[in-house]
Every structure is written in C-alpha cells, then in structure tokens.
C-alpha cells in the first residue's frame, strides 16, 4: 500500500493508494497557497507545508495545524521591496524534527519544528532557492535554485573547527554542541537548478581506486540548462567535489546537419561547426580507399551567453581563386550572418 499527497490551492489531500486515487482525508486548509511539502521519514503523522510567509506543521491524524512558523517578508532598505512576500519553495525534515526551508529571498533556514523557532539562517543564494536534498545520515544538506550555485550546509562540532595558515595550524576547542554551517559552493550549472538528489556512491571507488564507499556520495543535479550533472562528494568534506559525469540527453533541441557543395554544417544547442569533406585519392593494395585530403573542421561559432540555436541556413559562392561560405544563424538573441572566405576548401 503506497501513500500519496497532493497540494491544492489552499490545502492538500492525502491518499492511501496512489494507483487507485482513493482520497483518505484533506487537512491543513489555509487561506494562502501551499507550494511545497515535506513528510517526516518515520513519523507519518508529521507533515510540513510551505506557503507564503509561513510554514505549517500539520498532523494528518488530527487533521489540523499543530505549529505555525512565521518566516516573514523580504527585508531590505527599500520600502517597496520590503513589502514583498517570502515564498517557501522547498522543504526538508530530519528525524529529530528539524525543518529546512528554501525561500524566494535566497535564504536557507534551519527551524526547530517542535517550538517553531529559528536555529540558523544562511543567505546561500542571490535569488530563489528552488530545491534541496538531505543526506541519509542527515548531516549534510545541499540546496540550489535560480542563481545555479549548489551550496553545501553541514552539521559539525565547533571543537573540530581548524584554522590553517602558512606556518601554523590552530584547532579551536569550544562547546561540543553541533551546529549547522555553510561550507562549500559548486558552480557547475549555467541556468536554474530545479532538482537535487543524493545517492550512495557505487562507482567512485572504481574511478579513484578506493575501496571505502561509506565516505562517498553522488550528488545528481538537473535544471534549465538541460544537463544532468553527477558530482563525487566526500562525506567528511576532506576533498572538494569532483564533477564525475555530464549527461546531455535531456534537451529538446535536435542536432541537425546541412550540406552544401563540399561543406557540412553541424548545428548543436548553442554552437555550430562548419566542416569541409575529404577527397579520395585512389585505392591501396588491400582494396581500401585512400584519402588524399582528410575532413577538416573549418570553424566553430558559439552563441553569446549560451543562447539556443533555433535555425540556420547556408550557401556557397565560388570564384576563380577562392570560395565563400555564408551562414545565417538565428538564436534567442537575434539573427547573425557570418562569411567564411579564402582558400578554405584546400
């Protein structure tokens, strides 16, 4: 039997079986939109709902809100901006009822859900925080959003904090109470990051010739740049994240090939390539074709700011001494015309 929750305009519905869509109950009816949900991993009665300026802690058995956290509006020196609402885009919950929230002000906040108090607040991003993921041991959180930076937040003990200089290494010994701190940032995406997930590493040990998988994680991220990125993560943060794999098969753009005379034009998402074809030079003793002239990549033209290539056209003009290849390319920034001339078809 599976469970399934569905967010509506101002409340959410709770289903016992998603395959049959049998409605079990509707709880937490509010006056504002509910835009994010997070369920406690072991306590089925504990459900967190993100709304406008507020986070609601709901009980599915009591069918009501048992705690309400007031996040507040955006604060700024500008009165106009200070009136903007804070939208809670994403949530995560730990076993000890600690709630993480990512909002439209670029903040990642840590809350005590039992008392409804703020534990820590981080200005992790310059724009909306749209997604987050929590490690299985609940010691590490990754978050990202519109500014495409992936930020890591860790639960560490202050006594283990170490300061290293060119000549000395200083270890601070303070209270043993653990606290959440912001550690590293990953700059791999070019556009909004919409989804994050952490999985145990199964291949990093083969790649790095190591045998300890318990300290390895894989962070998978995807967004509007149509790339699925896989980072090799070390749990104890002793090494920086390593970009392990890029997957480009999630774009709707179709690569096309145009041919005109002795030239081929290859179009990709944000660049084009012009090639000249080779020339046969006969057959060798084994009956294989010999190339007198190999194919050559004449030019690669990239769009500005990784704009998407929408359409291209090509024509060839010949003269006695040289040839001209005229390429028209339309992208999201406008129309561009390029002329490649000279003895390019050598």
UniProtKB/TrEMBL annotation:
Example GO BP: maturation of SSU-rRNA from tricistronic rRNA transcript (SSU-rRNA, 5.8S rRNA, LSU-rRNA)
UniProt cross-references to InterPro entries, sorted A to Z: UTP4, WD40/YVTN_repeat-like_dom_sf, WD40_repeat_dom_sf, WD40_rpt
Membrane-spanning segments: none
A GO term, aspect molecular function: RNA binding
Cellular component annotations (GO), alphabetically ordered: 90S preribosome; small-subunit processome; t-UTP complex
Family matches, as Gene3D superfamilies: YVTN repeat-like/Quinoprotein amine dehydrogenase
PANTHER family in the cross-refs: U3 SMALL NUCLEOLAR RNA-ASSOCIATED PROTEIN 4 HOMOLOG
Name of protein: Uncharacterized protein
Originating organism: Adineta steineri
Lineage: Eukaryota, Metazoa, Spiralia, Gnathifera, Rotifera
